[in-house]
Amino acid sequence: MVLSARGLGKDFAGFTAVNGVDLDVEHARIHALIGPNGAGKTTVFNLLTKFLQPTRGRIMLLDQDITKVKPDKIARMGLVRSFQISAVFPHLTVLENVRIALQRPNKLATQFWLPLSSLDKLNPRAEELIADLGLSQYRDTRATDLSYGRKRVLEIATTLALDPKVLLLDEPMAGMGGEDVATVASIIADVAKTRAVLMVEHNLSVVADIAHHVTVLQRGEILASGDYETVSQNPQVRTAYMGTED
Amino acid sequence: MTDATHTTSSTFTGARHLRTVMLIAILIFLIAAPFLFYPIFVMKILCFALFAAAFNLLLGYTGFLSFGHAAFFGGAAYFTAHAMKEWGTTPEVGILIGVAGAAALGLVIGLIAIRRQGIYFAMITLALSQMFFFYCVQSAWTHGEDGIQSVPRGHLFGLIDLNVTTNMYFFVLAVFLIGIGIIWRFVNSPFGMILKSIRENEQRTVSLGYAVDRYKLGAFVMSAALAGLAGGLKAIVFEFATLTDVAWQMSGEVILMTLLGGIGTMIGPVVGASLVVTLQNELATSDFPVTIVTGLVFMACVLLFRRGLVGEFYASRLGRRLGFRPEQ
Ligand SMILES: Nc1ncnc2c1ncn2[C@@H]1O[C@H](COP(=O)(O)OP(=O)(O)OP(=O)(O)O)[C@@H](O)[C@H]1O
Ligand SMILES: [Mg+2]
């Protein structure tokens, strides 16, 4: 178990957005978190990465209690997230975007006396990541000029640059065309061979394809949890969520 | 596609040539300036230009609007003046003391202010700098309303007599160029890259493991130290340090200079400072009230040139043809 939560809860001014959520994310597995809009999926992500402080519950990352740890520290411990709305550095190039992630682990983030060319030694690794995700031809394109799908791919490349132990992806395929969805799905399946992935995804055929475990969230609480087959047979889930989808 | 690449790269080298030519022209102008204008006037411009550039390091490159930079500028002026007058240090040591003092003040104010956003940040920096102002009014070593008067200019490295105007001028020019050089390097460094990423997407930068508050604090202290460099220099040029330099109006003035010239550009604050100082100089001998006129100029500029003079030039058709890109 690399990441687990027990009794996770969050209240916003009297409104309970998340309640009693238990999660176990395992190494080399893809864990999908699904549920209708407003179910609390993004809030769970914010709680796990400590962008929000939980009202209740405990979070363990690699046998360490991270319930009170700051979000930047969480990232340094190996739990890295993406955001529901694409989060790139728009006016930096694709290469620079990935290099931002590489700078800190390579101890090239605080030098204010060195020229920018000192970052060039990060280029080989950055180019490798860019190539892995098929962005080579956009190396020097500013992120803002990329298509939406490629922005999301760039975001994954940037995240992978940190070589995280646990990857949290918030709707990585939302707003993508069919072709891009297949590409990104295979990228995710690939990276999950060596690390744990927890992803929020609305596209159920992708979830059925690549997820090893599915947790269904509704109104902030867990409705069902198990493999896709079991969960999709669950009558409550069918009426509450999947019934409306099909 | 190849065509487009070709055009951009040739425009790019064209712009680089142009920039080099412009830089050399400016340098020649600065070397000749004391023989063409009243030297102390040019020195005043250089001090304020450096101050504005230091301020812009914070506003233009991290997005923090400080309303308390007078504390660093004026504080350093006091520290330098005190060191030189009471302890008899040489000018370069005096200035370093001023810079260190300003950096220390910057660290204290920064630690308190850096977690606030937007208007709260401006308000808290204003409040803290006002506290420092009242400290300067009250404490004995700053001599209250009188300030520290008749500060000796001294001998640079114990050798070069700064009472000789040309010596003084070239010392000021050298410090100015060093200061601008430091700012340029700071912005175009690995650290500057992280500052840029924070400005572009703070949450994402946090999620990549950066303790963003520390980077912001670093930029704040650097900005304060460089504002202190300008303040210490000014104390030596004018041979005094007074309450004017720590008053909130001074914080307002540097905002005016920076916005007028254009934030986020290297040259903008320099142009803005030159304009404001020239304007003040011209108006000082006329019957127009200086503050009202500068206020009107400011309003006109904000309404007409939202990016500031240099920013508008970069964004104009001519500026773009020359290969400049407006900073984002
Ligand atoms: N910062 C906040 N303050 C107050 N309420 C919030 C906050 N963040 C989320 N909420 C509320 O919590 C509930 C869950 O929101 P959340 O964004 O986690 O849902 P979600 O499952 O990610 O939905 P979607 O599929 O639309 O992304 C919603 O009702 C939302 O309005
Ligand atoms: Mg969401």
Automatic annotation (TrEMBL), chain A:
GO cellular component: plasma membrane
CDD domains per record: ABC_Mj1267_LivG_branched
Pfam family, one: ABC_tran
GO molecular function: ATP binding; ATP hydrolysis activity
UniProt keywords, alphabetically: ATP-binding, Nucleotide-binding, Transport
Domain of life according to the entry: Bacteria
The ABC transporter domain, residue ranges: 3-244
InterPro entries: AAA+_ATPase, ABC_AA/LPS_Transport, ABC_transporter-like_ATP-bd, BCA_ABC_TP_C, P-loop_NTPase
Name assigned to this protein: Amino acid/amide ABC transporter ATP-binding protein 1, HAAT family
Protein species of origin: Loktanella atrilutea
Higher taxonomy: Bacteria, Pseudomonadati, Pseudomonadota, Alphaproteobacteria, Rhodobacterales
UniProtKB/TrEMBL annotation, chain B:
Membrane topology: Multi-pass membrane protein
Subcellular compartments: Cell membrane
Species assigned in the record: Loktanella atrilutea
Principal localisation: membrane
InterPro entries recorded: ABC_transp_permease, LivM-like
Regions crossing the membrane: 20-38, 45-73, 93-112, 119-141, 168-187, 217-242, 254-276, 288-305
Pfam family, one: BPD_transp_2
Record-level Gene Ontology MF annotations: branched-chain amino acid transmembrane transporter activity
Designated name of the protein: Amino acid/amide ABC transporter membrane protein 2, HAAT family
Gene Ontology cellular-component annotations: plasma membrane
Alphabetical list of CDD domains matching this protein: TM_PBP1_LivM_like
Magnesium keyword on record: no
Alphabetic keyword roster: Cell membrane, Membrane, Transmembrane, Transmembrane helix
